[in-house]
Write a structure and sequence with these properties.
Elements lengths: L12 H14 L8 H19 L6 H24 L6 H7 L7 H23 L3 H4 L2 H30 L6 H5 L1 H32 L1 H22 L5 H8 L10
Helix pairs in contact: 1-2, 1-3, 2-3, 2-5, 2-7, 3-5, 4-5, 4-10, 5-9, 5-10, 7-9, 9-10, 9-11
Amino acid sequence: MREEAPGDHPSSISGLLEVMDRLAGRLPPEQASLAEFLVTYRRTTVAVDEALRAGLFEDPEWVEQWDIAFAAFYLEALREHLVAAGTPSRPWQLAFAAPPGLPPLLSVLLGMNAHINYDLPQAILAVVTDAQFRDSALMARRLRDHERIDTILAGRVAAEDVQISSRSTRRPIDRTLRPVNRWASKRFLREAREKVWGNTLELWHARTIGEDDYRTRLTELEVLTAAKVTDLLTPGPVLLRLAVSGFGVTLPPRG
């Protein structure tokens, strides 16, 4: 792995973790709820780094590049929100504007939805060239590494449940549903990432046609993701609802 001096545009995961730590330290008291997703994301990033060092991936250098590119979308949206410079995408606007008193789990889910459904396809496009998209053997390796992330995320579900539970007030029914909620979390994470791959291919096809087509399709994805973020705020057992209705969004095939 490459090492680097700290910076706002890291080129290694160690640098990315330092940027996350600095941003966490700069959150004003009135924005404290935003730390729920940030610290969860940091722990997941550490887990990805450990998997990279353990040799889990077929192309570790590409996965590291991709992971950094992915995080950059969130970090830039958070900076824009905190300093009121620029306008984050609609899904992030909704996630950042959510009421501060939400349960920690819901705060995390809002950030996850905006980041996975809207940012992740763009991050893949940022680190895969048109020529590489046309290389079926290479893309098969990319897809396998994409799917290996699911293994990491699934492995984090129980630990994250403990972390979030420690900051939540849970009723007896919540404790009874914990195994079901963990199952639901693993299910919707896998489902969302499968849809991400399909959406990435739709965006790539649009990009090969031209910038206008790409921007049109990206706007469609933004609208779909914003609607899903809004749906998360509907009262009720959110994890069970997501296990049924799905966490991901699907760009319809180009007409």
